[in-house]
Amino acid sequence: MEILVILVPLALMLGGAGLVAFLWSLRSGQYDDLDGAAWRAIADEEPPTEAPIKR
Amino acid sequence: MYVTRDFSHYVRTAGDGVQHIDLAVEGVHCAGCMAKIERGLSAIPDVTLARVNLTDRRLALEWKQGTLDPSRFIDRLEELGYKAYPYETESAEATEVAESRFLLRCLGVAAFATMNVMMLSIPVWSGNVSDMLPEQRDFFHWLSALIALPAAAYAGQPFFRSAWRALSAKTTNMDVPISIGVILALGMSVVETFHHAEHAYFDAAIMLLTFLLVGRFLDQNMRRRTRAVAGNLAALKAETAAKFVGADEISQVPVAAIHPGDIVLLRPGERCAVDGTVIEGRSEIDQSLITGETLYVVAEHGTPVYAGSMNISGTLRVRVSAASEATLLAEITRLLDNALQARSRYMRLADRASRLYAPVVHATALLTILGWVIAGASWHDAIVTGVAVLIITCPCALGLAIPTVQTVTSGAMFKSGVLLNSGDAIERLAEADHVIFDKTGTLTLPELEVTNAADIPADLFELAGRLALSSHHPVAAAVAQAAGARSPIVGAIEEAGQGVWATIDGLEIRLGRPSFCGAEALIGADLDPEASIVGFSKGNEKVILSVRQGLRPDAQAVIAALKTRNIGIEILSGDRDPAVRAAAHALGIPEWRAGVTPADKIARIEELKQRGAKVLMVGDGMNDAPSLAAAHVSMSPISAAHLSQATADLVFLGRPLAPVVAAIDSSRQAMRLMRQNLWLAIGYNVLAVPVAISGVVTPLIAAAAMSGSSIMVMLNSLRARSSSRETL
User: Where are the domains of chain B?
Assistant: First the structure.
């Protein structure tokens, strides 16, 4: 059971990383236009634009 | 005269010498549009950002300060085939966006915490039946607490705040039992863990928050979406006016930048965006949007004009009135306020459910505790059982039952051309059993059409159409459109208030008033009383064209469909008797009234209400706004005046009237599903509560029951998608 010493912090870290990634994606406006994002993924060529605006 | 367009009102500085403008764009609906617009605008030098938001149908643009004029973007979009208007974020919408993001953040936190706590709970559940050491179980419980407590403190905020607000106002709402349940569950779990007990409910508490936040977020998101659509509509109404900035120089400015005392120019074919008085010029104006009356009114020096009037024949100079609030609009607004107040008493299904819910659940929990104590259990065990009852009855499925159906239904309605302005409109629309239609612009199309086109020789009609292209008169525009004219006749001359004439192949052609073309003799007595009569002459060949608002193409089918659904139908119109009679007769509606004022309309609605009817009002004019608000539920076509659009619960797009029936059908189905969902949720409680009262609930049972009922409710809601595609 000593393995818990490694596994538990590891699990918590992975969970925390997922949460941080989610919060980052939320803050960078990736949920502002869900319909558009669905299409952008399959667009042939992304028009030259910069990162989405931050509000 | 030199015309400029001034959009500086909408431009804001986005830091570092970059300027920003938001445009609402009409007609963007696919990836192709998105790419075309973004490429087309990014190609303009000095544009640093062009990004389309397909959900909100808006375009964000940024460029280097001082290098470009925003009107250039609008022109470029026009070339690409899109109409765009500057858009200003209302503060209400900004709040909704912020709220929506906060809920999503809470949901994210709660969902991640649930996943991690579950990961710790499953070993405990399986360990309890196998070989887990008590120390290990305690360790896992403490870890769960470490994750669940901060997460619940953060993600529970929307519920805690709302519950606190309700309690401070000495009322209760659904969030009170939720907050009590979550806090008690967490508190009890901490105490139990402290005493090395076998069961802790961290997983149930945080999972409950997650499910409830899903419901909250869906609800909020739907409101945000309709708010965005409503905001776009306001922008697309293009409320700009041509303001005189010099003696002979006019600038096209947004209405927000116009002040009382300014002088604006009103050209033929333009809709007036302000209230004011005519100071120069002579014309006819169409006030049908304000009064419902389709007969034109003569406007000359001193005539008051109201926002929403259409200028027909001549150019007018209008002085914006000092107190635009003190006129007709004020009267309408006053009626509107009263009507809105009356409607806010409507109680939503969810509220009714929650009003019953809280006392029942809390009483059950209390009785459980007392019952166990009387039966001889220790206070500790009795309280643990009581809290388990609270946890298992927490309204997970109840919180999802209504928002999920609303979200799916609003999506389905959106596909059939109906936009929801308010979330509870679905419930009210489902109850409607009597429809009142306004005539002008609702049963009829807002645009004019030529009714006797078939009687006119094709070559003459085509020529008339081409000549009509040279006129600004809305009737001429209708003729041009009906004839499908593309190329205007070179050298055509417009005589204000009379018509247009030109010479072609040595023959003089004229289009305009019958007298202007020498065609008075052709006007028979049998002509439509509503129609505008236009004469056309080519040499000695003379014809008359009858132009009027036609009925919507499917109006008859819609009325028939409503009748088969046992819905009462009547027309209340501000228009003249013969015009309304003709429409009612054509559609087979026996009940109709003409020349009705806004106050009369409200009186009629109240009368119907007294009789217990639930009235759906469908109207578009400014005069309809108060009755739209007074009715149980209301709909407006998208062409409606700003005020009535803002008041209507639902807005429909396009030429057909079919969305009215589609919306009624969708909402009835949605209501059925909502009821089913509520029964599912109640059924779950009926099954689970006795188990909880008997004291054999383990956290595993609580978790399974909670997620099982929530998933069942969500799946049931998805059924709103399928059958809503049926048409008439």
Answer: 1-88, 417-445+552-668, 446-550
What is the rounded distance in angstroms from the CA atom of residue B322 to the CA atom of residue B259?
Answer: 8
- Listed range (B36-45, B160-169, B348-357, B598-607) with the worst mean pLDDT: B348-357
Q: State pLDDT tens for residues B399-444.
A: 788 888 888 888 788 778 787 777 678 888 988 999 999 887 888 8
Interface test with B, best of A33, A34, A46 (most B CBs within 10 A): A33
Cβ separation of A34 and B35 shorter than 8 Å?
no
Question: What beta strand segments (E) does B47-86 contain?
Answer: 47-53, 58-64, 83-86
State the average pLDDT for chain B.
80
Is pLDDT at A54 greater than 50 in this prediction?
Answer: no
B418 has which bridge partners? B652
Minimal C-alpha gap between A31 and chain B (Å): 9
Helix axes B175-194, B349-374, angle to 10 degrees: 40
- With CA atoms as reference, report the closest residue to B149 among B187, B92, B175, B180: B187
Domain B446-550: which CATH number of 3.40.1110.10, 3.90.226.10, 3.40.50.300, 3.40.50.720: 3.40.1110.10
- Would the CB atoms of A36 and B55 count as touching at under 8 Å? yes
d(CA B632, CA B617): 8
ipTM over the 0.85 cut-off:
no
CATH of B1-88, one of 3.30.70.100, 3.40.50.2300, 3.90.1150.10, 3.60.130.10: 3.30.70.100
Q: Give residue B105's pLDDT.
A: 93
Per-residue model confidence (pLDDT) at position B724:
44
The beta-carbon neighbor of A47 closest among B38, B54, B97 is B38
pLDDT band at B726 (very low <50, low <70, confident <90, very high): very low
If you measure CA to CA, which chain B residue comes closest to A11? B116
- The class of domain B417-445+552-668 in CATH terms is alpha beta
